[in-house]
Amino acid sequence: MSATAALQPTLILVKPDGLKKSLTGNILTKLAETRMIIVGAKVVQVSRELAEAHYTHLKDKPFFGELVRYIQGEIYGADYRRVLAMVYRGEDAIRKVRDISGATNPEEADSTSIRGSYGRITTKGVYENVIHASSSVEDAEREIKLWFKPDELVFPIYPTKTVIREKITEKVWA
Ligand code: DAT
Ligand code: MG
Questions:
Q1: Is 63 in the pocket of ligand 1 (CB under 6 A)?
Q2: Span from the CA of 141 to the centroid of ligand 1 (angstroms)
Q3: Beta carbon of 129 within 6 Å of any ligand 1 atom
Q4: 134 lines ligand 1 (CB under 6 A)
Q5: Homologous superfamily of the 8-152 domain (CATH)
Q6: What is the pLDDT of residue 95?
Q7: Residue 155 contacts residue 87 (beta carbons within 8 Å)
Q8: Which of 1, 37, 85, 162 is most buried, taking the most CB atoms under 10 A from its CB?
Q9: Catalytic residue set
Q10: Is the pLDDT confidence value at 4 over 50?
C-alpha cells in the first residue's frame, strides 16, 4: 500500500444550508458508497471563535465575515444555527470525500457532486456549498483536533495525553 493510500481520517461538516435543505441522509448515503468508516459525529452550535479558527486561512479575504456568519448559520434562523460534524476514516479518504463534494465554487462544481447538485451563490457572494471536507492530511489533523476531543471519537486517531484538571465544573443529568 503506498503512502497516499494509507488510512486517512477526514473532517466532514454538513453546513447549516445542508441541514436546512434536509440533505443529511443524501450526503450520508453518498459517503457510504466510499466504504469509509465513521469514527465520530455530533451536532454543533458553532461559536464565532470556532468558526474563525476553522477558516483562519481565509481571514484576510473580503468574504471572511460573511463566511463566518454562514458556517454559524446566522442567516437561517435559530433552528438552523448548527452543523453536523463527522470524522470518517478510510483509504484515500480525503480525496474521495473531496471528489464527492465537488469544487469549492458550486457554479463550477461537477453537476453530480454534492456542491454541484445542491449549492448556490448568495446575492452577498457567499458560496453556500452544503458540505465541508478536509483538503489535506495536515488540514484534516488540524480540523479534527479543533472540532473533536479525543474521547468524542471511538478510537484516538492521533496521539493523546492525560492531564489532571482541578475545579472543572461539568453539567450532568439531574
Ligand atoms: P473548500 O471549502 O473547498 O476547502 P476553501 O478552504 O478555499 O474551500 O474555502 C472555504 C470556504 O470559503 C468555501 O467552502 C466557501 C468559501 N469561499 C472560498 N472562496 C470563496 C470566494 N471566492 N467567494 C466566496 N466564498 C468563498
Ligand atoms: Mg478548505
A1: yes
A2: 19
A3: yes
A4: no
A5: Nucleoside diphosphate kinase-like domain (3.30.70.141)
A6: 97
A7: no
A8: 85
A9: 132
A10: no
The amino acid occupying position 109 is: A
Contacts of 15 (CB under 8 A, 6+ apart): 70, 71, 83, 128, 129, 130, 131, 132
Query: How far are the Cα atoms of 4, 11, 31, 35, 101 from residue 91, in angstroms, in the given order?
Result: 8, 14, 13, 9, 17
User: Mean per-residue pLDDT for 70-93?
Assistant: 96
Distance CA 29, CA 19 (A): 15
Mean pLDDT along residues 122-145: 97
Q: Give the β-pairing of 83-91 and 37-44.
A: antiparallel
Percent of the chain predicted with pLDDT > 90: 93
pLDDT at 6: 80
Q: Give the mean model confidence (pLDDT) for residues 27-48.
A: 96
Is the entire prediction scored with pTM above 0.85?
yes
Residue with cell 463566511: 67
All structural domains of the chain with their residue ranges: 8-152
Mean pLDDT value across residues 62-82: 95
131 Cβ contact partners less than 8 Å away, ≥ 6 residues apart: 12, 13, 14, 15, 18, 27, 101, 114, 115
**Alpha helices by DSSP H, the chain:** 16-20, 24-32, 48-54, 64-71, 93-101, 114-118, 137-147
Task: Work out the angle at residue 153's Cα, subtended by the Cα atoms of residues 4 and 13, and round it to the nearest 5 degrees.
Answer: 70
